[in-house]
Amino acid sequence: MSPVVRRQTLWSLKQAAEEAPSLAALQARIRASAACLEAVNPLIPIPLRGLVQSGPLENGEWCLLVKSSAAATKLRQLLPTMVKELTRKGHEVTGIRIKIQALGR
């Protein structure tokens, strides 16, 4: 009886995600969210850019994660302009919500 030879294949995280449909869909949503942030980044005042991260994008609603309430207040003023810019650039975003990240996360 011959021994069973197992072929060990090393996959990158990207390759593994592409092979699993649910992971591939998640990866696509992450890329879409990052593309939204890239599209509106020029509208965000330079001092605030480091305080903003892209969050989930679901059913046309995109979430911005913000590190301070002061930054969130300023960004709220920019939301209509951001939605217009996203629409102009072909992103299917109908609304943006802002979530303030708790300290220590």
From TrEMBL:
InterPro entries: DciA-like (IPR007922). This is DciA family protein. It comes from Hydrogenophaga bisanensis.
